[in-house]
């Protein structure tokens, strides 16, 4: 009998397992994947994600993978661009875009080093439920493991969420589709995001001197886009001044990959004997590049709640209820913003005017990036008083 079984060992599961194991709990961490391995995702980490890695003692190992710091951030809206350096947060200074092959392996290793029992290549086939309480899992090889809590960190199509019937709320179906590939010869000194109306083009420098180049389109365009991925991907890149030349002068190092499976929702985060963390409990369009940061933050909140429940410091249900409240209060405003951006509609005139005003002031641009990355709550930044201050400056 373990204290906790964590299903899924990437950006949500490994930190949750690590933090619980570091507090002395017996933890089994399972993943059907083996590591190192890639997953379908670009992988920008905002500064607060790097700060979480710092708190966990993993920042330097992640930086040592060789991905460059993003020293500028550019959000280009055509007539104007918001350009600046996101503000430092708790000693972390730059966003980084680290390949998941490298990042996830460091996270799994940290869970193992903390004392979690790690079984990779081990899929969970069944969640065991007795009298309405989750008591353990059966893996595909038929083995049974039991625990006081089973944590689903198993991503969008979570087996745990399905088994317990966790309901989604604040949900909006997928609004975009996206395709990406890696190129040498394209990187500049930071992240570039080009809003072209019916396309968004993103460039994130990453490991091995490459940059990931991502193109998103509205979901309505997905069938046409998919009919000629190569042509549509190149056509979007050609609309960004200078980018087609950079891409042509470099070399693509991997095939183009893509997905339209990007729904937006929160799911009930806990019940008797179970909890959800990461994409399993909160999934959204990748346009804010926040999934990894949000998984890290949720892992910390959940590990603290589970620790309180396991030690008897608080009733488990109370601790988990607070976890869900904290998660939702933090992420709901970002989910709303994500849905707005992912709709790829032209911004309402007031918002366009606000963005133009922000773009005209470098200090304000930095504050804006601070709100986007969550180091200042977005609700506070977009409050009528603050918007009034920006517009009258
Ligand atoms: C196109 C795209 C681009 C993105 N770009 C960014 C970005 O730039 N920055 C950012 O922060 N986020 C980005 N995201 C989001 C980010 O990828 C996710 O938020 C993040 O991976 C969530 O981590 P997770 O650990 O919750 O889930 P996952 O990374 O999905 O990991 C879940 C794990 O669970 C395992 N698993 C599933 N079922 C089982 C089972 N039954 N038994 C055992 N194991 C199981 C899987 O093998 C997997 O390893 C992007 C997403 C997409 C789709």
Features:
38% helix, binds flavin-adenine dinucleotide, eight-stranded mixed beta sheet, globular, FAD binding, 2 domains, 393 residues, FAD/NAD(P)-binding domain, Geranylgeranyl_reductase, FAD-bd, alpha+beta, D-Amino Acid Oxidase, Chain A, domain 2, Flavin-dependent dehydrogenase, 14 helices
Layout: helices, strands, pairs:
Blueprint: E1 2-7, H1 13-22, E2 27-31, E3 44-45, H2 47-55, H3 59-63, E4 72-76, E5 81-84, E6 96-97, H4 100-113, E7 117-120, E8 124-130, E9 133-139, E10 144-152, H5 159-164, E11 168-172, E12 176-184, E13 190-195, E14 200-205, E15 210-218, H6 222-227, H7 229-238, H8 243-249, E16 251-252, E17 257-259, E18 264-267, E19 270-271, E20 274-276, E21 282-283, H9 291-311, H10 316-342, H11 349-359, H12 362-372, H13 378-381, H14 384-392
Parallel strand pairs: 1-2, 1-10, 2-7, 4-13, 10-20
Antiparallel strand pairs: 3-6, 4-5, 8-9, 9-10, 11-18, 12-15, 12-16, 12-17, 13-14, 14-15, 18-21, 19-20
Helix pairs in contact: 1-4, 1-9, 2-9, 9-10
Bound molecules: flavin-adenine dinucleotide.
Brief write-up:
This protein is of the alpha+beta class and 393 residues long. The chain has helices at 13-22, 47-55, 59-63, 100-113, 159-164, 222-227, 229-238, 243-249, 291-311, 316-342, 349-359, 362-372, 378-381, 384-392; strands spanning 2-7, 27-31, 44-45, 72-76, 81-84, 96-97, 117-120, 124-130, 133-139, 144-152, 168-172, 176-184, 190-195, 200-205, 210-218, 251-252, 257-259, 264-267, 270-271, 274-276, 282-283. The protein has two domains: 2-43 and 99-170 and 263-342, FAD/NAD(P)-binding domain (3-Layer(bba) Sandwich); 176-259, D-Amino Acid Oxidase, Chain A, domain 2, CATH 3.30.9.100.
